[in-house]
Structure formats: structure tokens, C-alpha cells
Amino acid sequence: MRTRLISVRMGSVLAGLLLALSGAALAAAPQASAANGVAAVAEALKRGPVYVDPRAEAQLPKAEADALAQKIKDAGKPVFVAVLPAGGEFPQDKVLGAVRAETGITGLYAVRLGDGFNAGADRAVMPANAVHNLSEAVKTGGPVDASTQLNNFVDQALTQVKGGAPASWGSVGEDDGAPVAGLVALGAVAVVGGGGAYVLVRRNRRKKEEARREAVERLGVVVEEDITAFGEELERLDFHPGEPGADDAMRRDYEQGLDSYEKAKQIMGSVRYPEEVTGVTQALEDGRFALATLDARRQGRPLPERRSPCFFDPRHGPSTEDASWAPAGGAPRTVPVCAADAVRLRDGLDPAVRTVDTEHGPRPYYDAGPAYGPWAGGYFGGGMLPGLLMGTMLGSMMSSPAYASDLGGGMGGGFEGGDVSGADFNPSDFGGGDFGGGGGFDGGGGW
């Protein structure tokens, strides 16, 4: 009985080995029937970032293709490039979506089709507008050789694309023309190792999840303090809709404040990704302005101008003026400040800066790391932040191409750059170029 069981197990291993070898042999056969189709393009891109169809090798010789692939691998980003021959086999209006679906990996896909060029990306990896603008930039000025165009596109894309390289790029040799002995060894490893690649993918995902949870927890402490402070402001205001002198405008302000308070708590209760915290602080900022307006109405003072909150601590409320300030070792810049901090600065004193806990003790929020970017963004808006934070730790990190690329899930969609989603992606979320009528593969600068 024991001998029989061993024989059955050996038979299963051998069968698996034969299947692995046969699959590898088919993948290695350049003249196989599927070698010129979308399936072959996808299989190659699962193994490496650049694929050149044998009929298009004159456009991008092997040495140049290898250099381009190495550049992408060194950056560790989910950027995929295919150089294909023009013709009916790769329809202009369908090839990008077909390659993405067949590859099954979220990322930024660039296709050189004949002399034309187009690109598309999953929204979690790069916004459609950014893809479109990059594509148009490398098409402007008329036809250009494939190497120049693709390198220009990749150089710009690598600084902006989010996510990481797929684990499958490290599971097979870079050379598509691997020798038979290498394929035999690979087949044996596949049989013996079983789900090694799957384990690697799961490990990478687990690390991302841990980093995301830590970022949300760190942000949660600060945001909960803000929500609590806003609730205390509501109580201190002690407004009653039916009190003497109350009018409809005051009641609307008060209702706006209450709605903002509830909205902030509701959003925070469902936050899964760091960038979602921006909605919480946006709600709180709307609420604080409503309360400031209500207070002015009750006191008979002029209504406040809608301004950004105090840069040093948004809990101080809307700013009243702009003042010159410089962080330690940094250049002066103009920041919005509350009345109390404006007086402190004029008197040569330090402003009342919001501090947060770090492993090195309390630090100003702008010198505490990238986790506080979404928090600050909700208060000040993305357009203001670069100037306000210039020369600070947060500002330096936010200006980095890799800022927060591995912490968030884009719009909360679950799959990130480099993740295996299979064909499970929304075509409307995969865009950037012109996918209608083939217009996206023009060689010139027209849209």
C-alpha cells in the first residue's frame, strides 16, 4: 500500500513537471501560432516590462529594448511597453484594452503601433488626464523614432506612476529565448515550489496593507483631535435656533456647522485609505467657516471673508491675514494666519504650531513625515500646499514622485499598481488616450 501511494505521488509530480515543461516550451517557441497575437504580448509583459513583436524589431532593436526594460525594472514601477506592427491583427481602437485585459495586471500601458503611439492606465496608477497629456507630449512635433519616443514617455511616466512592479517580473528570466536546460530547471522549480509566486504576491500585499493601516492609525489620532475640538466649538457657541434675535441666516450657518460635524465623523468612521482623510478635514474646514460666520452675525460684526485656515493650526479657525514666516533653516514664505498668531509673529514670538507625536517626540505637523499630507490637503487644498510647505520635511516628501504611492488605493478601488486583477477592471477607469475610432494612434500632435 505504501509503495502504491508513493507511485501515485511520483506520477502526479511527473505529470505536473510535464505540464510545466510543455507550457514553457510553447512560450519559448517564437513561431507558434499565438506568438503574434494579443495573448503573446500579454504573456511577455507578465515576464517583463517591454515586448517587441518580431515583425517590429527594426523599430526597437533588442539592445535598446533591454535598456528600456532595465530602466523600468530599476524604478520598480508597473509600466508596460509594447512595440507592434501596424495591421488588422492589432485593431487601433481595441489593442490597449485587450492587452490590459489579457495581461491582467494594473498598470500604465504604452503601445507603439506602427508609427503611431497611444497609452492607457488604470485610474489607481495614473489619472486619465495625466496619461493623455504625457501621450500628447511625446507625439507633438510629428513622427519620431520608437526609441526616442518610448524613452521620453517612460522617463516622464516613472516620476508619476503609482504602485510597484508586478511580482511576476522576477519569476522568469529576462531573456525570452531561454535555453531548454533553463526551461527544464524552471519547470522543476514550478512543480516543487508550487505557489511560490502566489506567496510572494500575498506577502507584498500584506506589507502594503500593514503600511496603509499604520498610516490611517497615525492620521486617525490627529483627525479625532480635530473632530473633538470642533465639537467643543459647537458647545462653546451655545447657539439655540429659537433664541431671541436668531434669524434664518443664523440657523442656516448653525445647521451647516452641525452637518459638517456629522459628515466628518461619518467619513472618519469608514476611512480605509490615508487619502480619504482629506474629506474629513474638508468637512471640518467648511464647518469652522460656518461657525465663524454665525458668530459674526450674532455679534453684529462684518461677515468674515472665506479664507484658508490658520497655517500653524487649522483648529485656530479661518485666517485673518497673510504673514511672512520661515521654518527653521528654510526660506521665508507667505502663509495664512489667525489673528493671535499674527500678533505673535509681529512681536517676534513663535506661533502656536500644531504638533503631533513621532518616534522622536512631538514635532510640528509639517516636519513629521508624509502621513500628514492628506490631513493638510483637506484644509489647504493641493494647489496651496507646495508653496506653504516648501523647505519642510512634509513639503520635501510631497514633492517626491514616490510620495504616498504605496499607501493608498487610489479611489478606494482595492487593486493597486502591479496587482493582479485579471480582466476584473472597469474599462472606463482605464484611459488616457483616444480609444474611439483609432484616433489615439496618430503619429503627430493632433488629438
Describe the structure.
By secondary structure, the chain is an alpha/beta fold. The chain has helices at residues 2-28, 38-47, 62-75, 95-103, 128-139, 146-157, 180-193, 196-237, 248-269, 277-299, 339-346, 373-380, 385-389, 393-398; strands at 50-52, 79-84, 108-113, 116-122, 321-325, 333-337, 355-356, 363-364, 430-432. The strands form three sheets. It has a five-stranded mixed beta sheet, sandwiched between helices. β7 (355-356) and β8 (363-364) form a beta hairpin. Residues 1-35, 171-192, 397-415, 421-429, 433-439 and 442-447 have low confidence and may be disordered.
- Average pLDDT, rounded to a whole number, is 76
Give the termini separation. 72 Å
Largest sheet: 5 strands, mixed
The Rg value, from CA coordinates, equals 28 Å
Show unreliable segments.
1-35, 171-192, 397-415, 421-429, 433-439, 442-447
Kindly state the number of beta strands: 9
Q: What structural category do the secondary elements indicate?
A: alpha/beta
List the helices and strands and how they pair.
Layout: H1 2-28, H2 38-47, E1 50-52, H3 62-75, E2 79-84, H4 95-103, E3 108-113, E4 116-122, H5 128-139, H6 146-157, H7 180-193, H8 196-237, H9 248-269, H10 277-299, E5 321-325, E6 333-337, H11 339-346, E7 355-356, E8 363-364, H12 373-380, H13 385-389, H14 393-398, E9 430-432
Parallel strand pairs: 1-2, 2-3
Antiparallel strand pairs: 3-4, 4-9, 5-6, 7-8
Helix pairs in contact: 1-7, 2-4, 3-6, 5-6, 8-9, 8-10, 9-10, 10-12
